[in-house]
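fold-stage: in
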Amino acid sequence: AGRTRRAEQDWMRFPVSGVSFDDANAFAAWLDRTGRVHGARLCDEYEWERAARGADARTYPSGAKLAPDDANIDVTYGREPLAFGPDEVGAHPGSRSPIGADDMAGNLWELTRSVHTPGIPAVRGGSWYQGDLSAQSQNREDGEVSARSVTLGLRLCATPR
């Protein structure tokens, strides 16, 4: 209700949110097992970071700075309480990574597999509720296996067979 831009959106184009690490792993295993996406799995946090930063190790997918409308972060809609929330995937081309992956900064934190603590998630990318520091591509936060949040989603990788 508090938005003057992107007030009308197609919720079918929103990223999946509110899933736990266990949910995300089960979904990826189902995709692989059924043949819908061979080798589907949660990305590990290094794969995610490389996809977000590119070969030149940029701070944000778009480069050294993140403008308010480059990604869906706290300032995108003026920090208005009734304007916070997700956007359609791809609504912010400035958060597209060098490899063409949309929303690698902001919109939703993304579950990844921790390379430091196997079996535990690391979350990456920031969300619509956090600022630009959280959206830096090198930023990581420890996650919880069973946590579900409207600010938490997933991104899958696949290993071809």
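fold-stage: in (second)
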Amino acid sequence: AAFQDNNGKYLIEKHTISTAPSIQVLDLLHQRKITRNQEKFVPTTMTDDELLIVGNPTAPKTPLKEGNGCKVVSLPGAEKEAKNIARIFNTQTLTGDAATETTIVNKMSQARIIHLATMTFSNDCKTNNSPGVIALASSNQDDGWLRTSEIQNLNLKADLVVLSGCETALGRITGDGVIGLSRSFFAAGADSVIGSLWDIPDMPTATLMTEFHAKLSKNTDKAGALRQAMLETMKKHPNPRDWAGFTLVGLL
């Protein structure tokens, strides 16, 4: 999105961008969509059960590993982001202590849109051979760490998963695409994932994601909504670091 031409124009100013995870995976996503035969993806008609909006969960009670390498901090921008999105769709959001791993996993199976504005960790926090982990609130039934190995075993019907955390579109590069958090949601049944390419800033991301869902709620296609959100955020936060970090992977 932040590539510039000789005139200084960004690529996103001229084109709508989406990414194929790999040719084989893209074909599998299309075939699965046909087999599933869901109703058309229309965000404005979705029920509360079909919308899962999560922001700024309380840190898990047990550290992922010793030391400060995987420390979870509060993200006020992520909480603002989730509440803004919930207002757009006239639904509820899960934040703080309510955003437990068990509650979120149980709600995921029915959700058509899953938006997770949380802390995420990738390479430096590998555990159990999992290339990524999402930090959620913990309960008596879980440890609060949702790993890729757990995600890929879920049964999802989501049209869209938004991973509004740091480096959620990264992973191990293979001949069949990038293996990481985003890939685990495809394996679980999601049609498309929006993930990040670097450590995203808290408050500008809240602006970007609020704009994205506002456009999406007007039945704009996912890639088009992300493009429009970037262009709007660019006006307030001109540094590409603040608006160009997200990419749509999968079906449009």
